[in-house]
Amino acid sequence: MNGEPEVHEKSGESERPEEFEARLKAYEGRPAAATGIGRDPVNQPMIRHWCEAMGDTSPAYTGPDAIAPPTMLQAWTMAGLTRRPERTAAYDELLRLLDESGHDAVVATDCEQEYLRPLRPGDAITFDSVIESVSGLKSTKLGAGYFVTTRTDIRAGGELAGTHRFRILKYAPAQRPPRPKDLRPRPVINRDNAGFWEGVARHELLIQRCTGCGDLRFPWLPGCNSCGSPEWDTVAASGEGTVYSYVVMHHPPFPAFDPPYAVGLIELAEGVRIVSNVVGTPYDKVRIGMPVRLDFRRYDDELVLPVFQGVTR
Description:
Strand content: 35-45%
Shape: globular
CATH topology of the largest domain: Thiol Ester Dehydrase, Chain A
């Protein structure tokens, strides 16, 4: 923005920021999706797939009295690859207005869920969404833009079961200086995983350990999947592991990567798994069950990553 107020175009004439924001604010409270119906009732197969993907073994999600994991709340309303017919013209108008003003890039920023009652197999799901808020113009590292928050009320058998708030940023991409083509992408470091990357900088691969039940977990999470405890400490991985699964990347040729190369899902001796590059072994010689050993590779002045070397026995 360079300290200058933005001027938006409106029917061939200049529109001041406050006028534009007033137009955006007029969409608050309007429906984003008319009453929708979940594609399927709450069902055990979807619950099982979800739990397997998340590694959640809680007995609450199996058996004749099973409930759905609360975090599946949105799953029962999602459209997949198709556009849901419930989406309203008002929501499309709002997005088009932002696109036409130059804020045509979008990123999902966060979501919030509130659970009011458990969902059980057989529950029929209905939902409706409202445009809850549109922010004023915000400056972000991505560029200047507007946060749009929708609230979806999800009902089971007509009874309110939970609320899902979803927030996106519609922004005009900031101009950035080009990065060297051989510079690897930076990891996203936040308050939940900063300790892991501090360990990597010391050439330690740290695994979280719940101090409530003793379970190990990776990747790092703010709480334990097994007992729910938020308390934890860490143990350093021995560095021994095996290739649990792998893929060979041939395309596309991302900057700083030289395909073909192997990306492995490595099962550590401690029992947790990590995704990393398999190095020191030709990509076409990597095999499931192959023993590997942890190494740390420096890619530039700032970036050190854990990788795994193939071991010959």
